[in-house]
Amino acid sequence: MRLTQIGDQMYPVDVGQEGRDDFVVACVGDTCIDVSLAVGLAAIGGNALNVAANLELAGVRTSFVGRVGDDEDGRRILDSMRARGSATDLAIITADRTCRAYLETDETGHTWVSEVEGVGTPVVLPDSTLDALTGFAHVFAKGLVDCSSAIARLRDAGVRTSYDYSFFDDDLGEYAADLTFYSAGEGNADRGRRFAARAIERGARIAIATLGADGCIALTSEGDEYRIAPEPVRVVDSIGAGDAFTAGFIAAAARGATLEESLHAAAARGAEACLLPLAFEQETWPVDVGDRPLGIKTKTKTN
Length: 303
What we know:
Number of strands: 16
CATH superfamily: Ribokinase
Number of domains: 1
Shape: globular
Strand order of the largest sheet: 7-6-3-10-11-12-13-14-15
CATH topology: UDP-N-acetylmuramoyl-L-alanine:D-glutamate ligase
Strand content: 25-35%
Order of helices and strands: EEEEEHEHEEEHEHEEHEEEHHE
C-alpha cells in the first residue's frame, strides 16, 4: 500500500490526505447516552462518539461532530469528549432532547438497543458543517441523511472518507466512502462479500464486512481479498465492539500498518471492547430507568 507524507509522519493514502498539516479524524453522526439495563448504569455512547473516544485512546487526534441536545446529557457528552482531547467546536447542538438508548444484554454478552428516547439517527448535516469538514484529513461518519451526497462532496474536496453502513444495504447509494464498514453478522460471509464488492464498484478503496464470531472479510479496489479470524474472548457486553474495530483499523493504518496488520489490530481492539460492560473505559453513573426491568436477559435476542 502506497504511503504519503502528512506533517512529519507517513500514512497510507487510503487513510490520510496529501498536503495536510496534521492528521485529525472528524467523527460525524449519532451520539447518545447508553443506559445498560443489565447493570443499571449510564455512560456516553453512540457510533461517532465511540469511534472518536477509541481513536483518542489510540493516540489519534479527533474532532467530535456528533448531534446532542441543549440539555444536561448533551453537556455531559461534550465535557467528556473535551476531557478526552477531542475538539467539540463542530458538534451539532439542537433544541431536541439528547438521545438515550436503553440496552439489554443476554447471558452470552450479546447487547441490543431495546428502546430509544430523544433525537437519534438519521443526522442532517448543515451546509456549514460540511464546508468545515472539507478541511480535515479524514472524515468518519455513520447515520447521515443522504450519505452518498456528503461523501461525494467531501471526495470532490480531496478528503478521505470512511463510513459505517451498519447492516443497511440500501444506505450505500451511488458513491461509497474510500473505506467502508458493514456488519454482515455471524454466518453471513457471502452477504458481507457481496456488499463489499458493491462498495468497491462504487468507489471504495477498502471495503470491510465484519462477521461477528466469524471474524471479517476485506476487499480492495486492487482485487485483493483478506479473511481475518476473530480474537477469542469471553464476551461481557458486545455494545460498541464494532466501533472499537473501526477505530482500531483507522489508528493502525494511520501509523503505516499494512492492510492485514490493520485488520488484526482492529479485531484485537474490538475484542477488548467486548470485555467491558459498555463501549470503552469511562466513568458511569446510576440512572433512573423507570419501570424497565434490570438484569441479564435469559433468552438470546438478535437484531
